[in-house]
Amino acid sequence: MSKSVSELTDLLFAYYPKMRKLYRDLVSIKDIPISLTQLTCIYIVDQHNGLSMSELANDLCMSNQQLTKVMDALVELKLVERVCDPKNRRKFFANVTEKGKNLLASLKTEVDKKLSYVLRKKSPDEIDKLYDHFAYMAGYLGFKAEG
Q1: What string of DSSP letters covers 48-115?
Q2: Cβ-based neighbour number of residue 33 at 10 Å
Q3: Has this prediction a pTM greater than 0.70?
C-alpha cells in the first residue's frame, strides 16, 4: 500500500498538535519558571557542548535577535553561560551550568514519572512498538536513538 504526500501532510498536521500537547504536559514542572523554548535551548546546548550562538539559533529555527532574548533570560537564571571565543572576541559559545544540568536531570526524572503513568496500561510489546516508531522517526530526522 502506497500513501500519497498529501496523506502524509494530513497525518503530520493531525499529529503535531497532539504531540506538542503531550510534550508540554510531560515537561511542565511548576517550580521551573522558563518557557519551552528556553528549555529546548538548554537541552540543545547540553547536547552540543560549546555551541556557537549562530549554530544554536539555527538549531532552534530562530533569529540571532530572538535567541539573544532567550539566552539573556537563561544567563540571568544561571542555567547557561556565554563564553567568549579566545580567537574571536565577537563570537560567543553557550554552555550549560551545573544548575542547568541539575534542572535537566530533575526534568528527566519528572518526565519518567509522568510517562510511566501515561503508559501504565500499555503492554511491554506496545511500549517497545512505540519506542521503535519514535526511534525510526528520530533516525529519519537525523538523530540517533539511544538504547
Answers
A1: STTEEHHHHHHHHT--HHHHHHHHHHHHHTTSEEEEEETTEEEEEEEEE-HHHHHHHHHHHHHHHHHH
A2: 9
A3: yes
